[in-house]
Amino acid sequence: TRRGIQWLLDAQEADGSWFGRWGVNYVYGTGSVIPALTAAGLPTSHPAIRRAVRWLESVQNEDGGWGEDLRSYRYVREWSGRGASTASQTGWALMALLAAGERDSKAVERGVQWLAATQREDGSWDEPYFTGTGFPWDFSINYNLYRQVFPLTALGRYVHGEPFAKKPRAAEAPAEATPAEVKGS
Predict the structure, then answer these.
(1) Buried b (16+ CB within 10 A) or exposed e, 10-24
(2) Please, are residues 85 and 25 in contact by the beta-carbon 8 Å criterion?
(3) Which CATH class is domain 2-184?
(4) What is the domain partition of the chain in residue ranges?
(5) pLDDT tens for each residue of 126-166
(6) Residue 17 near residue 52 (C-beta atoms within 8 A)
(7) CB-CB contact of 101 with 44 (8 Å)
(8) Does residue 23 sit in helix, strand or coil?
(9) Contact predicate 80/98, CB 8 Å
């Protein structure tokens, strides 16, 4: 674990972000690394996490969401963390900020509001942009579940807390509790 943490810390970009591979791109990388580092025990006060939080806040779109264009793989300086807001990329950013202890921040509030405002009547989100990539510039992927899973996960963590922050409610239930009592706790 220590070697993995050190590898991630060494891979952080100067601006505070992390490169991403299977999702586009620095928003995805940063959205994956912060929860991993905090789950591994790195404190949210660690300078690398604070730099990443500042980077995510700096690339949040005016509408409250996050997005990143595929061009960030080729034109890093101009497109890193830049693009039209998408549900999946907003979910990645929110999961990172929540893992970093930023639940009550303006950035999280605006991101949650963006997801709520853009959710369709059937509970899903539209996502017309590619947010997945197999090999940058060779082929991009529209993972249809990205636009559902990541926003829902982020909203769930916003409402119920981070999965690593405390024991699940069922784990806190007395051993003699019935399933109905556990479900209601």
Answers:
(1) eebbebbbbbbeebb
(2) no
(3) mainly alpha
(4) 2-184
(5) 999 988 887 777 778 788 888 999 999 999 999 998 766 54
(6) yes
(7) yes
(8) strand
(9) no
